[in-house]
Write a structure and sequence with these properties.
Length: about 425
């Protein structure tokens, strides 16, 4: 085959070029209606009503350009990567590795060697807990997590503690859902081997003071893993400035495909860590006597990866960068303010999580209505929210509730969505009066 195979990132239909002021600053307003047109599923009906999708904290919808990139890849240039000498395989490898470079640029990593492709945030944290943990943690050592962690940032550390006889210590939260930093300071000690906390809580919306958390740990020589699963679509991230040691995130929460995500790791630490899974792609040489390992990042990527997901992830990053994360953040801040003001007018609502620094997540209880009933009635009104413990059972225990109803916002939500949410909540209250 002589024809060059190119994997093109489809351009967004009808998207006008950004307005750029002299001096290079784009001052065009954030156009949510234009953004919405990029997401085909948002045009659907749910139970006969126009869909209001308020569950992006669980997983975000996908823009057409990402869907097209997957289609183009599967129909035009699909093959396995890294090992093929033929043209298709070289093109697929190039597209996959280009996504790694884009991910490195997105978070301002020093090099793409620091970008390990994984299934998602869960796998990223497990990788660190197994590989870094087994090498660095011994009996009597302590791992510090917080009370607001997702189970994905608790259970892998519990496994490690069980294997090593180490102890999991927990930084408590207050009744706003903010970390108690004095307690963090108190818990950080000579036995602490790693701090693993979330950048943004998925059940409370709290945005943690991660720079401070990293600084405090580093002053004691302790590395920090940040769970960025929720933060990544809402904030501009610079891992060098933040100076964290590991940062974990999933593409599907940032409008990308499922089954692909990133473990960012400081290169020096990744170099020192042993591989955690064995198989193809992660080796340099294999004999029955001895196996040597591939260079970073491949040392941690055993087996055929999610190739199409990786390629689609590259398009996702282009899309997100094209939206301008600073504009997205400002838009979402205003939307959250509007949502909280609107919902506060309903006297039967109790918000779970009222942190001063928060983003995109509104957890609540409705007096006299079980959260699951809230979810079901809202569904009938075309409003998709999540109900349950959100994989944060310790948070539910803290607030003394079995579950909450959670509406979560993304760049494609509007004030009209919030009005529909408020209307549907009022309907739920009527039904259960
Ligand atoms: N951490 C947080 C804060 C999350 O919200 C989630 C997903 N709900 C995860 C980790 C796990 O992400 P994934 O399921 O994509 O691995």
């Amino acid at each position: 085959m002589n024809r060059p195979v190119r994997i093109e990132t489809p351009s967004r239909e009808g998207k006008a070029p950004p307005q750029v002021r002299a001096g290079g600053i784009d001052d065009s307003p954030f156009d949510v209606e234009k953004v919405r047109r990029d997401f085909p599923l948002l045009k659907s009906l749910m139970n006969g009503k126009p869909l209001v999708y308020l569950d992006s904290a669980a997983s975000a919808q996908k823009p057409s350009c990402v869907l097209e990139a997957l289609n183009v890849f599967y129909t035009g240039c699909y093959s396995n990567i890294h090992r093929g000498v033929y043209h298709l395989s070289a093109a697929a490898t190039q597209a996959y590795e280009e996504s790694r470079r884009k991910a490195a640029r997105l978070i301002h990593a020093r090099s793409e060697r620091e970008i390990i492709f994984v299934r998602g945030a869960t796998e990223a944290i497990n990788l660190v807990a197994f590989s870094w943990g087994d090498r660095n943690v011994s009996e009597g050592d302590e791992i510090l997590v917080s009370e607001m962690e997702h189970h994905s940032n608790i259970v892998p550390w519990q496994f490690l503690c069980e294997r090593k006889g180490a102890r999991l210590r927990v930084i408590p939260i207050d009744d706003r859902g903010e970390l108690i930093l004095e307690e963090y300071e108190r818990l950080l000690g000579p036995k602490t081997k790693i701090v693993a906390v979330t950048h943004q809580s998925n059940s409370l919306g709290t945005v943690n003071p991660v720079s401070k958390i990293v600084d405090m740990a580093h002053r004691q020589g302790v590395p920090v893993l940040l769970d960025g699963a929720q933060a990544i679509p809402h904030h501009r991230l610079d891992v060098q400035q933040l100076d964290c040691d590991f940062y974990a995130f999933s593409a599907h929460k940032m409008y990308g495909p499922t089954g692909i995500g990133v473990l960012y790791g400081r290169e020096k630490l990744l170099e020192e860590m042993p591989p955690w899974q064995g198989g193809g792609d992660m080796i340099r040489t294999v004999t029955f006597d001895k196996t040597t390992y591939a260079e970073l990042p491949h040392k941690f990527e055993a087996g055929t990866p999610n190739i199409a997901g990786g390629v689609g992830f590259g398009t996702t990053i282009d899309y997100l960068v094209g939206l301008d994360l600073d504009k997205v953040a400002a838009y979402e801040r205003e939307l959250l303010r509007y949502a909280l003001a609107t919902l506060s007018e309903i006297p039967q609502i109790r918000f779970i999580g009222t942190a001063r620094e928060r983003c995109s997540v509104i957890s609540f209880e409705l007096e006299g209505v079980h959260p699951h009933d809230v979810g079901t009635i809202l569904d009938g009104e075309g409003v998709a929210i999540r109900t349950g413990h959100h994989c944060t059972q310790p948070v539910m225990d803290h607030f003394g509730v079995p579950a909450t109803a959670r509406a979560s916002l993304a760049c494609y939500n509007t004030k009209e969505d919030i009005n529909r949410l408020a209307g549907a909540i009022r309907k739920a209250l009527e039904v259960f009066r």
